[in-house]
Amino acid sequence: MIERMLCNFDPVQIARSGQCFRFEEMEGGAVRLTALGRRLTVRPAGAGRFAFSCGAQEFGALWRGYFDLETDYAAIGARIPENDAFLTAAYRCGEGLRILRQDAWEALASFIVSQNNNIPRIRASVQALSERFGERREDGEGAYFCFPAAKALAGAEEDALRACGLGYRAAYLLEVSRRAADGRLDLGAMSALNDEALRAALCALPGVGPKVAQCAMLFGFHRMAAFPVDTWIRRSLAAHYPDGFPLERYAGCGGVIQQYMFVYERKSAKEGKRA
Which site in 87, 192, 205, 257 is 20 to 30 Å from 160, CA atoms measured? Predict the structure, then answer.
C-alpha cells in the first residue's frame, strides 16, 4: 500500500465517466478496478492524498501511466474561456477526470459492446465476458478475472457471446476477435498511424462506426484529440453551441473536454437541471 498526493484526480468520477467498464465503487469513495492483468483498489486518504493497494514499483510501472498522472489537467482546464459558462461549469464538475491509458484491445472490444447500450448493461456484459473467457487470477482479496484475450474470444461460439448480453453485437465482436487472433488486425501496428489513418482503419472493422472508433482512439490509443459524439455530447452541442463548437481551441486535448461535457450533461440530467 502506498499513498500519493494528487491534483485533478477523483477515482469515483473516473469510474462513472464511461471510459472503462471494470470499475467497482466501494464505501468511502474508494474504487476497485481490474486492468492490465491486475486488480487495484484506490481509496481517498484525506487532504488530496490517495492510497493505492500496490507497491511503489508497481505504481510507477503501471498505474502512474494508466491514470495519466504526468499530464497537467489544470492547464487544460485553463484553456476554457471564462465567458463559456457551460464549459466552465462542466470543468468544475469533472475536475477530477483523467483519460485512462487502457489496453487497446480491451478498449476496442468494450466499445464494440457499448454501441446502442447503456453503462450498467455494458458493465454487466464486460464482466460476463471476463468471467467466462478471461484468465482467472487471485490476489489478497480473492479471485478476479482479466478481460479476455482476442484468441479466447475468437474460439467462442456466437451464442456463447450472446449469452453474455451482447445481442447483435456478438457477431461483430467475434469477427474482430478472429481478425486480431490471426493477425489480420494488428493493433500494435495501428498505434503508429496518424489520427486520421487510425480512425479510417478502425471504421473499416465490423461493428465500428465513427463514435466507437473515436472512443477506441481516445481510451485505447490515448489520442487526446479524439472527440466522440454520443447522445449526451450531441445534446450539449445543440443546446450550447448551435453555431458550432470551437474544437480548434482545444487542439490536442479535445477528448478531455469531451469527458467534462459528458459527465456534466449526465449529472445535470440526473438532477433535472441544465446549465
Answer: 205
C-alpha–C-alpha distance, residues 154 and 4, integer Å: 40
Predicted pLDDT of residue 275: 45
Smallest CA-to-CA distance from 79 within 88, 71, 70 is with: 88
DSSP state of 118: -
Grid cell at residue 102 = 487502457
In angstroms, rounded to a whole number, what is the distance separating the alpha carbons of residues 101 and 108?
13
230 grid coordinates: 454520443
CA 207 to chain centre: 18
Q: Cβ atoms within 10 A of the Cβ of 135, count?
A: 13
The runs of H, that is alpha helices, within 95-166 are 104-114, 119-133, 150-154, 158-161
DSSP bridge partners of 51:
3, 43
Flag whether pLDDT at 163 surpasses 70: yes
- What pLDDT sits at residue 207? 93
Phi, psi (rounded to 5 degrees) for 24: -125, 130
Its pTM surpasses 0.90:
yes
Rounded average pLDDT over 243-254: 94
Q: What residues act catalytically?
A: 211
pLDDT at 238 over 50: yes
Query: Is the CB of residue 107 less than 8 Å from the CB of residue 219?
Result: yes
Question: Residue 47 CB: number of other CB atoms within 10 A?
Answer: 6
